[in-house]
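Deviations from the work plan: none for this task. Representative record:
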Amino acid sequence: QQQVKQSPQSLIVQKGGISIINCAYENTAFDYFPWYQQFPGKGPALLIAIRPDVSEKKEGRFTISFNKSAKQFSLHIMDSQPGDSATYFCAASRSAGANNLFFGTGTRLTVIP
Amino acid sequence: NAGVTQTPKFRILKIGQSMTLQCTQDMNHNYMYWYRQDPGMGLKLIYYSVGAGITDKGEVPNGYNVSRSTTEDFPLRLELAAPSQTSVYFCASSPDSNQPQHFGDGTRLSIL
């Protein structure tokens, strides 16, 4: 049973465009929602994270939008660059426990010049 | 600053063999985790530890064992390798439950 559902599976965006990846969860006990970026042959690296007390968090070209009532959150990459081409994973956890992360299935982003 | 180091990077095993995947971190983190990543499935938690001497099961623990005798090391043991354990294995660590997890670069394991 997939605790966090992620879409789309793959995404192709023109350089300078906006990349949008969506995730949904069921467990209302989740209170930490990170996004990880993974390049081939490397481990996932934390990109940006949000807690449910805010509806949006922005760091540079990366923004998380969070909708607590709909149990959905999304990653927006503004002015997408070829260097952003990677696989992106959303995740969720309960920080009251051991913060075990439940990951989405990943989105392979390709930014074409 | 090494962070989380995993060895080996690649390994091929025969069915029924055993091996230990090594993970060590130099950040003095209390929490450590083992995940496996299968194509199209994201990462799933195998085992985790909240400190030396304390381990617990994650989502997919069957066929694996762990130990945590020191803060730095968290080895993952496969006793009787099966084809279903072909995967990429990632180790991660964090200072506590409210801090981000830092991942190693993985061990790619094939069982034939």
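Chain B has a mean pLDDT of 94.
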